[in-house]
Every structure is written in structure tokens, then in C-alpha cells.
Amino acid sequence: MTAYNKxxxxxxxxxxxxxxWRGIGCILIVLVPLISLGLTAILTPLLTTTGYVPRELMGHxxxxxxxxxxPILSAIAAFIASINNLWLSLIIFIVILVILTGISSLIYVSxxxxxxxxxxxxxxxxxxxxxxxxxxx
Length: 137
What we know:
Elements: H1 19-50, H2 71-81, H3 86-115
């Protein structure tokens, strides 16, 4: 055998991911935004009645005059302007979405760590028992 030939060992096939995990991920991609949209619909009226929301976030969106002159943009702008408290709803939606995504990720990781594959396989080297001294000058 020459120095340029590669030595190949019997490679074992990688274990495929269980399809249940893909299904859970797919459900979370759909479910988390829907939950966040529902919570936004519930929380937006509650927050507007408290009086702590800035006036700039409440009411209808106002577009510049030139938007009404473009035929396609005028139809889109009319639909967007008909939505009440759009900026407040978008902010609440994004905040809830980030929080729910973080919580679901933490739960997903903790469950996967408990029932998932081992941290080290048989081909990994064992962890080092030597601890380096702290460097002092």
C-alpha cells in the first residue's frame, strides 16, 4: 500500500433520524405561529385598554399620497390600511413568536437529550482526565 492510498475501514451506515422527530418539527413550524396569532388576537384589545401603549402604534396605517396613484399598490394599501392597530399587533405577534419558539426549543432539546443518542460513540476518544494548571505570569 502506498502513502497516497487511503485506508478505508468498514464504515457502518449512519443511523437515520426517527421520522417522529421530523413530524414533531413540522407540527411545531405550523402550530407555534398559529398559537402566537391567537394570543395576539386576545392580547391586543387588552393592551389597548390599559393606556400604556404609545399612540403611534395604535390606529390605522397611513400611506403617502403617491401610493394611491399606483393601481396595484393602492389595492394593497387599502387592505393594509383597513387593519386596526396593525403595528401593535405585529409587535405583539413577533414577541410571542420568539418566546414560544424559545420555549419549544428548550423542551425539544431537553427531551432529545434524555431519550436521544449517547453523547459519545464507540469511535470517540474518552474525555481527558488531565486538567491544565492555570497560567500565571
